[in-house]
Design goal:
Elements (H helix, E strand, L loop, with lengths): L1 E6 L4 H11 L4 E6 L9 H4 L21 E4 L6 H10 L3 E4 L9 H8 L12 E3 L2 H4 L8 E3 L3 H14 L8 E7 L14 H4 L4 E2 L9 H11 L6 E7 L6 E8 L6 H11 L6 E3 L17 E8 L2 E8 L3 H15 L10
Parallel strand pairs: 1-2, 1-3, 3-4, 4-6, 5-6, 7-9, 11-12
Antiparallel strand pairs: 7-10, 8-9, 10-13, 12-13
Helix pairs in contact: 1-10, 6-8
Length: 334
């Protein structure tokens, strides 16, 4: 039995993660922490959550677990990761602290120097389908953001085949849970209901450099990206519609064959039949990513749907843990 700890258990990702771990046949949640709710129980704070006692972060027995999940804000995660690693645990970080390979990129986008730049070289970017071979030996895994997970899984087969020929436009829409549990005016019910709001358009969102970094490593020649996120008036789910200019030799049949070949053995990727587009209904409350393909002249229109709290966060973290510890990849995941 693998003993796991969760730091930051009362945010949406922590709640989702503990729910998944409670149903995992080979994992025991040994502790869960909360700054504000220590001494209470998760189920009393969030109705419907599993019953887990909450302890102060300083009391977490990091040396008594095999893996620590960090569901903490950026900048707070990195020092906790360092302490957990020094205590002998492996770490899966759900914040942005280890997603960038260059500490200067982190400083530019998060407004402060990286807290632990010495750990960046050992961090594995945890897009499971892409980095599966590196995960078994990893001591520190950076779980990707929800928007990048949806976009990158859709783009990976094309980018690695050299099929992209021009600027990629990612039009993405996320449920309100992607903004976290901390109250903000723009996520209040009255602001969100019956509304659809674009925000941080073009190259302004913090997930943009994450997408750009990974695409740059896959493409034979660098490709420009425009990323336009939107807030959907739904609790969960994320849908990306992506416009990709194709190289001349890429026919619709060749594109479909490429996707079916790359993702043939993937348990959580579904390539939809011709004429079908991905929707939130394909994926919500699962660890799946559904991808639809539609070609118009030399433009491929991709639709890529995930549950932002599962495949976009906690489910992918469990998937990464399963690979890290040599478990069945689907274990504990619906």
């Amino acid at each position: 039995m693998i003993r796991a700890g969760v730091l930051g258990a009362t945010g949406y990702t922590g709640i989702e993660l503990l729910g998944l771990l409670s149903g995992h046949p080979q994992v025991e949640a040994a502790f869960a922490t909360s700054e504000k709710n220590a001494g209470g129980n998760l189920a009393d704070i969030y109705p419907g959550a599993v019953r887990v006692p909450l302890i102060p972060p300083g009391d977490a027995p990091l040396g008594e677990v095999e893996v620590v999940f960090l569901c903490l804000p950026h900048a707070a995660s990195a020092p906790s990761a360092k302490r957990a690693i020094e205590a002998g645990a492996r770490v899966i970080d759900l914040s942005a602290d280890f997603r960038f390979r260059d500490p200067d990129v982190y400083a530019e986008w998060y407004g402060a120097p990286h807290p632990c730049p010495e750990l960046l070289p050992e961090a594995v970017y945890g897009l499971t389908e892409v980095e599966r071979q590196r995960l078994p030996g990893a001591g520190l895994v950076a779980n990707p953001g929800c928007y990048p997970t949806s976009a990158l899984l859709a783009l990976w087969p094309l980018a690695t085949a050299g099929a992209i020929d021009g600027q990629v436009i990612i039009d993405a829409k996320s449920g309100v849970s992607g903004a976290g549990r901390t109250p903000k005016q723009e996520t209040h019910f009255v602001e969100v209901a019956d509304n659809l709001r674009p925000y941080k358009l073009g190259r302004a969102h913090r997930h943009f450099p994450e997408i750009e970094q990974e695409l740059a490593g896959w493409c034979k020649t660098p490709q420009a990206v425009i990323f336009s996120p939107h807030l959907l008036p739904v609790p969960r789910g994320l849908l990306s519609t992506i416009y990709v200019p194709l190289s001349d030799e890429w026919t619709e049949a060749r594109v479909r064959d490429r996707y079916l070949e790359v993702y043939a053995a993937e348990p959580f990727i579904e390539i939809l039949a011709s004429g079908r587009a991905a929707t939130l209904g394909h994926v919500n409350h699962t660890n799946r990513c559904a991808v639809g393909l539609c070609q118009v002249d030399r433009t491929l229109i991709l639709t890529s749907a995930i549950d932002n709290l599962v495949k976009g966060a906690s489910g992918q973290a469990v998937q990464n843990m399963n690979v890290m510890f040599g478990l069945e990849e689907t274990c504990g995941l619906r």
